[in-house]
Amino acid sequence: MADNFKLDVDADGIALVTWDMPGRPMNVIDLATIEELSKIVEKIAADAAIKGAVVTSGKETFCAGADLTLLDTLARTFKDLAKAKGLSAAQYDFHALGWLQYEYLQQGRFAKAESLIALVPSAPSPPTSAAHQHVESEIGRGFGAVSLRGERASMRARLVVESGRWELMKGQPSFDNVDELFALGLASVKLNDRGRAEAALEQLNGARKAAPDADNKRLADIMYRQVGGLYQMMRGEKAEGLAALESAAGLESEAPRPIARPYPIKPAGELYAETLLANGDAAGAVRAFQASLTRTPRRAQSLIGLARAAAAARQPALATRAAREFLEMWKQADTARPELEQARQILKSP
Q1: Angle 73-78-83 (CA atoms, 0-180°, nearest 5)?
Q2: Residues 217-241: pLDDT tens digits?
Q3: Is the pTM of this model over 0.85?
Q4: Hey, which residues does 55 pair with through a beta bridge?
């Protein structure tokens, strides 16, 4: 039997496949896992006595995403294969690069994450409707101009949001998909650009109306409430702003847990927690960060946020544990990042 999976079949012919990778705190997708699961699927399919199957996890969460080395290898392999077949740059599938970029961002390797954006070629602006602009996101796939622009836009948006380099969007007059619009709205508030923040809110409201289905409508609504809440905070409407951010977090919690990457690109629960901490509610921030980490485990910004909040709330054991986990994730991080020193200072505190 495979090392990473356990297969049990009950008396009713239902197979239970338990994924529990030995020696790892969380399950990750690598080549060995793919091969082992394929063999199990073949075994189940060949057994007429098995009527159905359930795949579950032996860990606290189902999966932490793909192993970084696997993603890196797959990205290079696909690009080499595409070149060997004589495909143009516009015909590569760059969706995998978005996953690799997210792994880099979670490791604090922002320079590496930024370099991946250059691998996605620019595409001319297609004649699209405003509604199409609103609903295109990183979950779209394909080789056309819209998909290429959307992939670049989502990767750029994640870089800005995860790194906090809001100045990259200063004065930006347009956006290529809803992810970039959302990041533009957040950046406008952070840069105190009221006019551009109001314009982004108007566009996000349009995105809610243009969403093609209930799931996309909910995502656009969460983004609208996040930017709207921060905008109200900027205007001095603290209670109203916090209420909007809390409602965004509540709406997000009703959706299924994401697989590895969060969506929206800035988790609403994390943003709510950060705002609570910034406004002096350390204990509330601790609870909100813990809730966010339950939904998206081991997210770097939630971990360092929890460490800061726990330190401010005088919960040293929790602060130390979160800071250590964060530093372990960021052991290859860009050295100039302030979060590294903050985490180290928390560990030094009595």
Answers
A1: 130
A2: 999 999 999 999 999 999 999 999 9
A3: no
A4: 17
What is the model's pLDDT at position 191?
A: 97
Spans of the chain, pLDDT less than 70: 1-2, 31, 61-96, 121-148
Domain 68-266, CATH class in plain words: mainly alpha
Place of tokens 């750029």: 156
- φ/ψ of 5, rounded to 5, equals -130, 150
Specify the CATH superfamily of domain 267-350: Tetratricopeptide repeat domain (1.25.40.10)
Q: Which two tokens stand for residue 343?
A: 């985490």
Give Cβ neighbours of residue 195 (< 8 Å, ≥ 6 apart): none
What was the pLDDT predicted at 149? 79
The reported pLDDT for the residue numbered 70 is 57
Rounded to 5 degrees, φ, ψ at 339 are: -60, -30
CATH topology of domain 5-57: GMP Synthetase; Chain A, domain 3 (3.30.300)
Tokens linked to 6: 């356990």
Cα angle 143, 105, 157; round to 5? 55
* Size of the chain, expressed as the number of residues it contains: 350
Provide the residue ranges of all domains of the chain, joining segments of one domain with +.
5-57, 68-266, 267-350
